Amino acid sequence: MKPRVFSGMQPSGNLHIGNYLGALKNWVRIQPDYEAVFCIVDLHAVTLYQDPAELRAKILELAALYLAAGIDPHQSAIMVQSSVAAHAELAWMLTCVTPVGWLERMTQYKTKAAVQETVGDGLLQYPVLMAADILLYQAAIVPVGDDQAQHLELTRDIAQRFNSLYGETFVMPATSLPTVGARIMGLDDPSKKMSKSEAGAGHAISLLDPPATIRKKIMRATTDSAPAVDFALLGPGVENLLNIYQAFSGWDAEQMRAHFAGLRYGDLKKQVAEMVVASLEPLQQRYREIAAEPGYVDGILRQGAERVAPIANSTVELVKRRMGLYAPC
Ligand code: AQP
After folding, report:
1. Torsion of CA 223, 227, 228, 234, to 10 degrees
2. What is the best residue among 15, 19, 111, 133 to mutate for testing ligand 1's pocket, by most ligand atoms within 8 Å of CB?
3. By CB atoms within 10 Å of each CB, which of 63, 154, 226, 238 scores lowest?
4. Is 320 exposed, middle or buried (0-12, 13-18, 19+ CB in 10 A)?
5. Tens of pLDDT along 225-280?
6. Which of 7, 12, 6, 8 has its CA nearest to residue 195?
């Protein structure tokens, strides 16, 4: 039997090249070697207010993007978190073994809470729900970008605590980060990670941005006052552009140096833009084909939920028995 892999993304905002290079591209690469569950984590998205009609549309868009990027629904299950009730059920059980101090220390919670007038409890509980998503499927590995590494550590802490209180129950999931592209930074401000929820037209490149928009955003990306690429003195903006090129091209560090050392920033940007445009073109084409088939994505999501629900439900039954909750024989 193949080991299991689980990962997910929130249907909030527009998927960007950070989400693609940090996670989605890795999912496609590893899917033949694992029994994979790729989730659309809508319950996570509503930890911040989402317009209901827009959220429904974004769920289908995200599923279509998974498919367009190369997730094969015959190999991997694509499903929506809220369509398998066991996610929320296990989250509650894990909440009860999680000290609140562990959650208050999470960097993503602190960053997102800092810009809210009032902080919903869901935002604090976000990593417990993420732990439930992963532990529900007894996933051996979780391919994510670098920003989720802290939440994965917490998932292991919660699993360990549960196992020590109630006996061996959960598999310890390992974090899988890509070697290049684990943290793509904002084009307008390379000190901040590229993020769906960050406002600003020049911040992120969305996977569905037209070529002209991609070129414009990259040509305007923040660099520094040096004229050309110097690998001994890389500023964060230039390093980010080089990372983007390397992650899309698959080049090694030697090839990158040989090609880009001494190149003027304007030419670097042109080459990065053409690499991004050419890499996204097939994905965008497949996305348009999928979006033109009404009902296709709904069918995939229904099948995905039906496929994974028995695994999720059997974990919940096991956890109930371990905790002494009522579980009829
Ligand atoms: N900038 C990034 N570079 C590399 N990987 C990234 N990921 C996110 N940003 C980058 C990875 O993408 C996956 C999807 O994450 P998510 O939808 O759960 O949300 P997130 O991590 O909070 O990403 P965003 O884009 O910043 O979304 P919002 O603004 O909605 O919170 C994860 O594997 C993540 O590591």
Report:
1. -50
2. 19
3. 226
4. middle
5. 999 999 999 999 999 999 999 999 999 999 999 999 999 999 999 999 999 999 99
6. 12
Contact 248, 296 (CB under 8 A): no
Contact 53, 173 (CB under 8 A): no
How far apart CA 73 and CA 291 sit, in angstroms, is 16
193 Cα nearest atom in ligand 1: 1
Q: Whose CA is nearest to atom 15 of ligand 1?
A: 9
| Span from the CA of 183 to the centroid of ligand 1 (angstroms) | 9
Tokens representing 294?
Answer: 């009404």
The identity of residue 68, as a single letter, is A
What's the CA gap between 84 and 118, in Å, rounded? 29
Atom index in ligand 1 nearest the CA of residue 147 equals 35
Q: Could you give the 3-state DSSP secondary structure of residue 221?
A: coil
| HSE toward the beta carbon, residue 184, CA cutoff 13 A | 30
Residue type, 256: M
16: three-class secondary structure by DSSP: strand
Q: Spell out the alpha helix ranges (H) of 145-264.
A: 149-166, 211-219, 236-249, 253-260
What distance in angstroms lies between residue 125's CA and the mean position of ligand 1's atoms?
Answer: 17
**Global pTM?**
0.96
Question: Could you tell me the two tokens for 55?
Answer: 């959220």
| Domains in the chain, CATH or no CATH each | 4-177+294-323 (3.40.50.620), 211-290 (1.10.240.10)
Environment class of 9 (CB within 10 Å of its CB; exposed 0-12, middle 13-18, buried 19+): buried
Reported as a single tens digit per residue, the pLDDT across 137-192 is: 999 999 999 999 999 999 999 999 999 999 999 999 999 999 999 999 999 999 99
Q: Please list the alpha-helical segments (H only) found in the chain.
A: 17-19, 25-30, 42-45, 52-69, 86-95, 100-104, 107-114, 121-136, 149-166, 211-219, 236-249, 253-260, 265-291, 296-323
